[in-house]
Amino acid sequence: MKIIQLFGISAFASLAFLGSCKPKGTETAVSGDAAEKVYVAPGKYDEVYNFVSGGFNGQMNVYGLPSGRLLKVVPIFSVNPENGYGYSEETKPMLETSHGFIPWDDQHHLELSQTNGEQDGRWIFANANNTPRVARVNLKTFRTEEIIELPNSAGNHSSPFITENTEYVVAGTRFAVPTDDMNGDVPINSFKENFKGVISFIGVNKETGDMNLSFQIEAPGVNFDLSHAGKGKSHGWFFFSCYNSEQANSLLEVNASQNDKDFIMAVNWKKAEEYLKAGKGRKVKTQYAHNKFDEKTQTATSKMEQEVTVLSAKELKDICYFMPTPKSPHGCDVDPTGEYIVGSGKLAALIPVHSFSKMLKAIENKEFAGEYDGIPILKYESTLYGEVQKPGLGPLHTEFDGKGNAYTSFFVSSEVVKWDIKTLKVLDRQPTFYSVGHLMVVGGDTKKPYGKYLVAYNKITKDRFLPTGPELTQSAQLYDISGDKMKLLLDFPTFGEPHYAQAVPASLIKDQQVKFYNIADNKHPYATKGEAESKVVRQGNKVHVYMTSIRSHFAPDNIEGIKVGDEVYFHVTNLEQDWDVPHGFAIKGNQNAELLIMPGETSTLKWVPKKPGMWPMYCTDFCSALHQEMQGYVRVSPAGSNVPLTYSLNNKADNAKSPVKTAVTK
Ligand code: K7E
Ligand code: CUA
């Protein structure tokens, strides 16, 4: 057995099993008909869209299943030079925060919008783990449309889980921190007095998807890890796992692993809403960015919000309850009926399953084992439905197939274990390669899982793919779960570090895709709706180039009279009105990325030339047979030069109607 020391410090021998083991006989685990089951013939579509978190690349990767083919990378929290996200003037505001512009984050969990507990194919939400934010991606455009920052938080990990009608997206803070209205400049070892674990409830507009921070709940200073909403009978409740009930602030691998049990916190959010209406919250002055991309102007704006209402779990006794859960629970998963809440204690040798009905009774009968920082602790036996015995080592996450089965990932023993939710009996186990984190069943956290495929997202791949230096690819593994036994079908590499993922049957969203933007609806303030309108306008040292692109030229494509010290804004409108014809735009020496402009869209690249000379520009996306001809020049003269500002196409200035009098050479 090969032990990989994942947590670094080997001196703590009792924790050594936290590393992972490699299962035996791994190369032969694939069943005979696997190839047939994953083969999607050229020209055929995949059956499922799989949205996979990018982890430390801050993006979302979209795969087709069962083929495992990568379809698209959607930038959310990280700049993406490939399409100018975070580089173009229009998208820069998406990455604004109360700390200024941030070009990166760590993206762990994705959650598709739901109606009545079923996927509705409208949006997918994403969390940023480092600088706490939640994003919404539109599934008609595969674009990030909105990002909201979360005050009073740090390490937005138990997020962005949603309620069954997407009423709320929640976000629990992983790092307890002093709230924003407290002085954070305190000794770190004052953790117990000063640090709080705040949970955010972000309301989602039913029609538009627009988010707003409805309220927060201030809970004790523990580390909230994961969460899931109640559904069906438990709709109105939310469940959050937490570790570090020890409230340690150093060497957590030891000091936060002392208690035999930590907690799953049950939150009655309907009750919280009542308190909010009754004015029970305290208004906390703070600052958090709220960024929205407007499809009409194709431009994002960033607004700094100033206040949030915080409810105190300690004062409002009946909104939060702790359910003791062994030991340092990670995953917190609710089955499709809403009755069973599964906690996966990373250090537990069993899987505890709580019963929602028993929990309600226990609350009613006040079966409390005490209080934790003012929050009632329910008795373990009172909420426990039962325990899965000897399931494996290092349970992390559980998904469901809608047929009464649960699937739990085991990081340490590198396996997926299938068990029966009612009988708690282990039914099957299959190795993963290796050290699996999250699992995903298509629709596995809804009321109606699709239940045909399961994907394991693995942290360590060692010998599975061609080696690529010290850093090896992470991977996903596809299993067929339609029969009694799980069957491994396919390995495919993934990018960044995949954590949670979601998937929908392709039929739900494939026909709703926006193919191009109607140029008539383009309300961008710098849109140029025909070549005749293209122009160059100087305003002091700012030069606005109203440029068009169409196969296979820019208008204008020759510009003279730019001077060192100018700030040049290329506002490029793609005049095409056809699917799959983007144009790119780049200029030599620009300390920026390219633009990739969709048909009917306007995007802006800022360029500050540093020295006189001749600067070529060109289209970066192979758009026609004469794509390579899609190019032009900008002449830059020294500061103070009297070269007149001119622009032309085919040596003709084709615009006499410019509202601003710029010199034009014929
Ligand atoms: Cu990777 Cu959900 Cu951040 Cu578990 S978390 S693996
Ligand atoms: Cu436009 Cu290449």
Write a brief structural summary.
The protein is mainly beta. Helix content is 5%, strand content 44%.
What is the β-strand count?
A: 45
The whole-number mean of residue pLDDT values reads: 93
Question: Which bin fits the share of residues in helices?
Answer: under 10%
Biggest sheet, strands in spatial order? 6-7-8-9-17-18-13-12-11-10
Give the termini distance in whole angstroms. 79 Å
Supply the helix-strand structural class: mainly beta
Detail the topology: elements first, then pairings:
Blueprint: H1 34-38, E1 48-53, E2 59-65, E3 69-75, E4 96-97, E5 100-101, E6 110-115, E7 118-128, E8 133-138, E9 143-149, E10 156-162, E11 168-173, H2 191-194, E12 196-204, E13 211-220, E14 223-229, E15 237-243, H3 252-255, E16 262-268, H4 269-277, E17 282-294, E18 299-312, E19 320-325, E20 329-334, E21 340-345, E22 350-355, H5 356-364, E23 368-372, E24 375-378, H6 380-383, E25 384-389, E26 395-400, E27 405-410, E28 415-420, E29 426-431, E30 436-441, E31 453-458, E32 474-480, E33 487-494, E34 501-505, E35 535-539, E36 542-550, E37 553-555, E38 558-563, E39 567-574, E40 583-587, E41 595-597, E42 602-607, E43 613-618, E44 631-637, E45 646-648
Parallel strand pairs: 13-18, 36-39, 38-44
Antiparallel strand pairs: 1-2, 1-34, 2-3, 4-5, 6-7, 7-8, 8-9, 9-17, 10-11, 11-12, 12-13, 14-15, 15-16, 16-19, 17-18, 20-21, 21-22, 22-25, 23-24, 26-27, 27-28, 28-29, 30-31, 31-32, 32-33, 35-36, 36-37, 38-45, 39-42, 40-41, 40-43, 43-44
The structure holds sulfanyl-(tricuprio-$l^{4}-sulfanyl)copper and dinuclear copper ion (CUA).
The site of dinuclear copper ion has 9 residues, from loops.
